[in-house]
């Protein structure tokens, strides 16, 4: 009986240790420079432990900002803005270009900006060249910061949206250098090259963002892709 009790206690302690370790990596509590992996750069896509390595940048703002460099992204640090109601942002940047494409983001957390740059540089732009022989020249931003709860899903209505922390970005359309434009509302569900491009671009966001959802998720996302680096996980 005593041995059984000790085994149960060991199992409980091991489970708690595993859960604590998972939480440490999930919340990005270990700076990226202390992880046993090469430092993230925008030149090459991280191939292993991608989510953990991006999350670790949350604990190392200086290193995160140092990663955000042209030509993969044009970003300028902005002043922290924490609101009494819990909304606002810390360690955020303003973005004018990502992977050579024009975009206008007034506030996006550095961690999410890294995810955006990796997705555009190693996911979207190669896909555009492969399918259309032309790079993306412009990305329609449909919002980053907005102090509000999650909309469109009754399970999470009382939970703050990641937009409340400038930790999310909504994308509505892409325009290529050859003038072709692909719009989420019009093209996402279509059985056309434009529709296939948008659906594949969506899927290529999933390794870099914890949440990458679009029209197939619910009606609230009929006109955009929602991408964020929050605590939830969904790719649909």
Automatic annotation (TrEMBL):
It comes from the Bacteria. Residues 63-235 form the Extensin-like C-terminal domain. This is Extensin-like protein. The lineage of its organism: Bacteria, Pseudomonadati, Pseudomonadota, Alphaproteobacteria, Hyphomicrobiales.
């Amino acid at each position: 009986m005593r041995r059984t009790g000790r085994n149960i206690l060991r199992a409980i302690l091991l489970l708690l240790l595993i859960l604590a370790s998972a939480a440490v990596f999930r919340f990005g509590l270990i700076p990226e420079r202390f992880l046993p992996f090469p430092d993230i750069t925008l030149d090459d896509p991280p191939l292993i432990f991608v989510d953990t390595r991006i999350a670790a940048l949350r604990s190392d703002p200086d290193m995160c900002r140092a990663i955000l460099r042209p030509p993969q992204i044009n970003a300028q640090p902005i002043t922290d803005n924490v609101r009494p109601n819990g909304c606002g942002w810390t360690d955020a940047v303003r973005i004018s270009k990502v992977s050579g494409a024009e975009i206008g983001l007034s506030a996006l957390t550095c961690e999410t900006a890294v995810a955006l740059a990796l997705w555009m540089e190693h996911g979207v732009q190669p896909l555009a060249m492969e399918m259309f022989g032309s790079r993306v020249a412009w990305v329609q931003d449909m919002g980053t910061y907005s102090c509000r709860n999650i909309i469109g899903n009754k399970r999470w209505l009382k939970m703050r949206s990641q937009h409340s922390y400038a930790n999310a970005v909504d994308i509505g359309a892409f325009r290529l250098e050859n003038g072709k434009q692909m719009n989420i509302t019009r093209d996402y569900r279509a059985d056309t090259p434009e529709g296939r491009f948008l659906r594949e671009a969506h899927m290529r966001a999933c390794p870099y963002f914890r949440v990458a959802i679009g029209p197939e998720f619910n009606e609230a996302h009929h006109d955009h892709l929602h991408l964020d680096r929050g605590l939830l996980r969904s790719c649909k």
